[in-house]
């Protein structure tokens, strides 16, 4: 970091300087004079969060495999470091070289959560990069966005030059190659590059589209500004995950991160069709890795990192069709090496004693399940396709297997929800406690039973059957939270819930259009940063920014959307059709469930994207 003035003295005066020094084992260092494209990967959250993100790990590896491309990293500084950087004129810099981000060719942001939008803009300001794309000159890097949030790119469309829709392994290489080619042949200008990048499948260039509005505020049309610019942007997928690049080594942090472990991506997509779940729709079609590939990747990452835990991740891990083969293969060596296997929250209807034993061979701990709703009626509405009997069976297996801690995820504010459904959450938690005491005393796990109920607020996200729904008002969400608090009377049940104010702002950012961009920029101007952290989120600041920029927040939340109106994200083609989403919405109101892809194909449309999968017909 010797090329950054004042950095040594600053690092001695901030919390966790290990966030900012770089030089980690596994970091990629290249000769910057010998590469043709320098790519800065920016994660709009702290080092501890960003270093744990699998997508960043994958794309960092993909780009750095190319001899003439050097990808480096930068994360959002904590408030103490940010204040020092602003005071001493230290620009946002990349950890590998220490060079200012403004000196790079391409700068990519991974937008994982809407509440990180302000952090992304704050990082641009700290880097000395104009936050609006229209204000950037020829010498400014091309600013790219990707990640799950950009399936509705419109709220941040004015801030990014280029937006990657879908999976990035192939697209980022194509973008980088185009940049290198145009620089080499002398044809590069910002506008020329962006126009040619628009021809890459999965690339959205917001400046090449004009949006018009009706008198009632709804969208009239998205219109390409130039001939040949695609009217719809088709998301990109990686067809064969067995052949897709995956890191063989990890950048090892100096400080503890959120997920200090090997993370093994088992498959992409989901065979379930939960009607509230955006990820379950936008990540279709389902594509699995083979157990052989997964075991090879796990062993390689273990040997290169020394981590003693491997986390198997996907949207619904227990739906992996070859889970037994995979765990058999891993347990051949993980038991001997004292490496534990962990899974995310589990499906109630596919949890078994055998599965629990396989993931508990080394460490003991609690289990997490997601019933999502407190009554069977509402679970049918959201197409959860699990029953309370499934829950009773699962927790009975868990208790008999020595577990005494269970965490349950629910939502409030779901479509058609009543207070009886809210009370059902309390009753469900109480039934889990009763299952523990139903066991003969000698068979109960020691230490008593602990049940945690975690309840988030429903947000009608784009590309779900509930994308047209109204969000509950702030008053209604708070009332339901209080009602559940009063309904839970068992001291063994711990109740936690998400801040309803955050959920309201998140809904506006998730469902908004280009007209809310000035409010985001104004919130940043007034100090908004690290809004994903409770201690920095300021609801009043957000609402004043919306008021002062003329944004009617109810238009994006409690109004709901008409099924015949053009939605802000309608120019994006995720494969799943709008007609399928509408059919699912109708079935929700009829309280009818839809079977999983494993049972029968429901014709969602994702098969047109191709991909090596066994589910789409």
Sum up the structure in keywords.
alpha/beta, 617 residues
Give the overall pLDDT as a whole number: 93
Q: In angstroms, what is the radius of gyration? A: 24 Å
Poorly predicted regions are: none
Relative strand content: 5-15%
Strand order across the biggest sheet?
2-1-3-4-5-6
Strand tally is 19
- Category by helix and strand content: alpha/beta
Total number of helical segments?
19
For the record, give the distance between the C-alpha atoms at the N and C termini, rounded to a whole number: 55 Å
- Indicate the percent of residues in helices: 25-40%
User: Which shape, going by the Cα principal axes?
Assistant: globular
User: Largest sheet at a glance?
Assistant: 6 strands, mixed
What does this entry look like structurally?
There is one protein chain. By secondary structure, this protein is α/β, with parallel strands linked by helices. Helix content is 32%, strand content 14%. It is built from 19 helices and 19 strands. Strand 17, helix 15 and strand 18 (493-497) form a beta-alpha-beta unit. The relative contact order is 0.11.
């Amino acid at each position: 970091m010797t090329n950054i003035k004042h950095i040594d003295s600053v690092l001695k005066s901030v919390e966790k300087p290990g966030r900012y020094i770089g030089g980690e084992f596994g970091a990629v260092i290249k000769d910057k004079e010998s590469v043709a494209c320098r790519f800065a990967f920016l994660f709009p959250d702290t080092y501890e969060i960003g270093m744990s993100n699998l997508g960043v790990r994958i794309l960092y590896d993909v780009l750095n495999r190319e001899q003439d491309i050097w990808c480096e990293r930068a994360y959002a500084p904590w408030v103490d470091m940010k204040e020092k950087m602003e005071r001493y004129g230290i620009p946002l810099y990349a950890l590998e070289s220490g060079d200012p981000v403004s000196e790079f060719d391409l700068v990519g942001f991974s937008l994982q959560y809407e509440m990180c939008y302000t952090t992304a803009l704050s990082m641009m300001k700290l880097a000395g990069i104009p936050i609006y794309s229209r204000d950037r000159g020829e010498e400014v890097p091309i600013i790219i966005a990707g990640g799950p949030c950009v399936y509705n790119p419109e709220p941040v469309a004015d801030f990014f030059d280029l937006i990657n829709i879908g999976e990035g392994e192939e697209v980022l290489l194509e973008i980088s190659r185009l940049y290198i080619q145009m620089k080499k042949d002398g044809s590069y200008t910002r506008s020329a590059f962006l126009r040619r990048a628009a021809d890459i499948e999965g690339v959205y260039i917001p400046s090449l589209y004009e949006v018009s509005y009706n008198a009632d505020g709804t969208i009239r049309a998205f219109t390409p500004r130039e001939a040949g610019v695609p009217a719809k942007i088709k998301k990109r997928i990686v067809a064969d995950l067995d052949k897709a690049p995956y890191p063989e080594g990890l950048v090892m942090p100096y400080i503890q991160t959120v997920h200090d472990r090997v993370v093994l991506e088992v498959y992409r997509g989901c065979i379930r069709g939960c009607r509230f779940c955006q990820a379950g729709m936008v990540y279709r079609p389902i594509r699995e890795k083979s157990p052989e590939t997964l075991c090879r990747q796990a062993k390689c990452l273990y040997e290169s990192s020394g981590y003693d835990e491997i986390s198997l991740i996907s949207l619904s891990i227990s739906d992996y069709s070859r889970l037994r083969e995979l765990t058999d293969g891993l347990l051949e060596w993980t038991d001997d090496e004292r490496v534990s296997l962990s899974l995310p929250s589990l499906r109630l209807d596919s949890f078994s004693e055998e599965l629990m034993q396989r993931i508990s061979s080394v460490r003991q701990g609690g289990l997490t399940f997601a019933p999502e709703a407190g009554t069977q009626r509402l679970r049918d509405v959201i197409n959860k396709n699990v029953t309370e009997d499934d829950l009773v069976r699962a927790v009975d297996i868990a208790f008999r297997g020595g577990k005494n801690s269970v965490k349950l995820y629910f939502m409030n504010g779901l479509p058609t929800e009543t207070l009886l459904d809210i009370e059902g959450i309390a009753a469900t938690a109480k039934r889990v406690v009763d299952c523990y005491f139903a066991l003969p005393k000698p068979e109960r796990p020691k230490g008593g039973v602990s049940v945690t109920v975690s309840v988030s607020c429903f947000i009608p996200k784009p590309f779900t059957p509930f994308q047209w729904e109204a969000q509950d008002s702030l008053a209604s969400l708070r009332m339901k939270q209080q009602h559940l608090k009063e309904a839970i009377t068992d001291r063994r049940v711990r109740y936690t819930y998400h801040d309803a104010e955050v959920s309201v702002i998140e809904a506006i950012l998730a469902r908004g259009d280009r007209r809310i961009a000035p409010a985001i920029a104004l919130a940043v101007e007034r100090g908004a940063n690290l809004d994903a952290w409770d201690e920095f989120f300021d609801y009043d600041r957000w609402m004043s920014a919306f008021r002062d920029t003329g944004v009617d927040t109810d238009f994006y939340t409690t109004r709901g959307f008409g099924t015949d109106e053009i939605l802000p994200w309608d120019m994006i083609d995720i494969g799943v059709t709008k007609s399928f989403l509408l059919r699912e919405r109708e079935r929700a109101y009829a309280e009818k469930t839809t079977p999983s892809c494993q049972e029968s194909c429901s014709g969602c449309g994702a098969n047109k994207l191709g991909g090596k999968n066994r589910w789409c017909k």
